[in-house]
Amino acid sequence: MQTRLRTVFSPLSFAAYLAWGAIGWELLFTRWDSPAWLDAPAPGWLLAGLHLAFLALFMSVVGNDRASLGRLRLRVALQFGIAFALMALARNSTLPILLILCVVQVVHVCPPRPAVAIVLASNVVMFLVYSELWQFRSALVNTLMHMSFQAFAGLTAWFGLNAERARDALAAANADLVATRSLLAETARDGERLRLSRELHDVAGHKLTALKLNLAALARDPRFGEDAQVALCARLADELLADIRGVVLQMRRGDGLELGPALEALASPFPRPRLHLQIAGDARVASVAQAEAVLRAVQEGLTNAARHSQANNLWVVLRREGGQLRLDIRDDGRGRGELTAGNGLGGMRERLEAIGGGLDVRRTDTGGVHLQAWLPVAA
């Protein structure tokens, strides 16, 4: 909601509101000619109502990524209709500026080719308004002039939209790299921890065992059997060996990869949905392949929630159940219809099945997407 408000009240949107307000002022508080086909000037309340309806539709489209594209395109089409209705009721030179605002929105809700076709069709209608309703002698010149303004605004919006998409793609790629780096660092730390535990067990444990045997031999020697220093050394060797075994056991219990930092880094470039991460203390993966499968599953959940579900929140829970790790990913989207597995979900399923896991995908009662994945604890 906050992102939507920032877009609605952004400087670019404010410029559109300023243009709308200037057009309304001239339409309602200055003199204008009535088109020849009307017997009497259109009532002010009708012009004001249409003008306010245009603003309401404009604000309902700006920054609205929760509505479907079909609804957004319908609202833009209604704005075109209102603009032409106003031009049919009042002969005012500023009214065609409303079409520029419409063109900027068309670029955001339609692919390039349909957008160009819509702009061309709207200018054909505007030419007819100039020539037939307003009876301008230079109808073609006026149409081409306004078409150039529309083209400038539309191309600027298109380049800005492409730059925004490139920025989002770059941010997602950077987050992927940061998450991978975090995973590699955790892999290196885990490998170093395992190496140290083996060194302690094999080297220090071996030498302490040899020391205990030698102290036991000294204790059996009549010359040192009653020596308190020998007994003290034997007791200290026993305690040190027990301590080392405890440290080795603790290090091996902690064996596995910590995924929290990598998952948080993966979600950092997404302004929406917000990630709610919960990882149980004993839910640690045993291999890089398992870590990558979990990482890509959460990444796909984030991407789907942002692009398709229009979700605001994504809950990720990783826990251990018996001999399995369970990954639960759920969003609060408002999708409809049956879920179809695309390349992303198909790749996720294949990656999990390759390491002995699986995937179940379904919709929640509210229309969100619920992904349940599982994989074996052992690598």
TrEMBL record:
Limits of the Histidine kinase/HSP90-like ATPase domain: 292-378
Question: Domain named Signal transduction histidine kinase subgroup 3 dimerisation and phosphoacceptor: which ranges?
Answer: 192-254
- Gene Ontology terms, cellular component aspect? membrane
Task: State the superkingdom.
Answer: Bacteria
Q: Where is the signal peptide?
A: none
User: What molecular function terms (GO) are annotated for this protein?
Assistant: phosphorelay sensor kinase activity; protein dimerization activity
**Does the record carry Transferase as a key word?**
yes
Q: Which InterPro entries match?
A: HATPase_C_sf, HATPase_dom, Sensor_HK_TwoCompSys, Sig_transdc_His_kin_sub3_dim/P
Give TM segment ranges.
45-64, 76-109, 115-133, 140-161
What keywords would UniProt list here?
Kinase, Membrane, Transferase, Transmembrane, Transmembrane helix, Two-component regulatory system
Does this entry carry the keyword Cell membrane?
no
Protein known as? Uncharacterized protein
Organism for this UniProt entry: Arenimonas malthae CC-JY-1
